[in-house]
Amino acid sequence: VLSTKAEKEPELAKKVNVTGTIHLLNLALFQNMKHKITTKFFFPSSIAVYNTKGIDKQIDESSYCNPKTIYGQHKLFCENLGTAMDIYGNEQNLKIDFRCIRFPGIISTNTLPTGGTSDYAPQMIHNAFNKKEYTCFVNELTCLPFIVMPDAIEAISQLMNKSKDSLNKTVYNITSFSPTVLNLLKIIQKKYPDFQLTYSIDKMRQSIIDSWPDFIDDYHAKNDWGWKPKYDLDTAFNDYIVPQLTKY
Ligand code: SER
């Protein structure tokens, strides 16, 4: 349950995002007992764990983890629970090999997200491709870190394939590019010059985005497991988004 929807339906969000994760962690412990292994567990977290309102700088993994949203609070709680199970284990001393990535907004050509707050970027792109105009719910200077789906998948695969002793952390940031809405508009209109963008600002969604960082520091992912995105904004748009949308 993504951030905008979680804010509107907190009970549902708790049930799916927190209780769901706890059930999966318990299942991992059960696997440990059954197969006498330490189960590897991947948890997809989010830059929503940060609250950088009023702070204009890059952040590392430990700063400003004081999320404004219920969604971010739930993500942080699950990160901490998983990390505790990795370090300390449960009462029978069973541990989980917990690995987590804090994702920026993700842009996919195959699916459109719903209920998220970073949805405006993929929605703009898909609408432009489908020759539809788009009414953006955040203002033109809004800036957020993004990544495209192939890089997000590659990051999970890289992290999960590393040996545990090469990892200094359980939770990692990754990032690719941080466009403003205007930067996105510019690159979209280069390819689709007729694309029209208007604005109708949703105060709640704008305030969520304003609490998230513009840039994040992915030093530890680079250092510990060689993370490097394949795409920047230009290549993401021209070599992944446009060809894939055209193909499918
Ligand atoms: N991208 C998600 C959202 O917008 C946050 O992780 O809700």
Please, could you describe this protein's structure?
The protein has 248 residues and is an alpha/beta fold. 46% of the residues lie in helices and 12% in strands. It is built from nine helices and seven strands, in the order H-H-E-H-E-E-H-E-E-H-E-H-E-H-H-H. The strands form three sheets. A three-stranded parallel beta sheet has the order 1-2-6, with helices on both faces. Helix 2 (10-35) packs parallel to helix 3 (70-87). It is globular and about 60 Å long. It starts with a helix and ends with a helix. The mean pLDDT is 95.
Approximately how much helix is present in the residues?
40-55%
Mean pLDDT: 95
- Give the beta-strand count: 7
Strand order of the largest sheet: 1-2-6
What is the H/E string? HHEHEEHEEHEHEHHH
The gyration radius over C-alpha positions equals 19 Å
The largest pleated sheet is described as: 3 strands, parallel
* Number of helices, counting only DSSP H or I runs of 4 residues or more: 9
- The SS-based structural class is alpha/beta
Instruction: Pick out the low-confidence regions.
Output: none
The kinds of small molecule bound in this structure are: serine
Shape category = globular
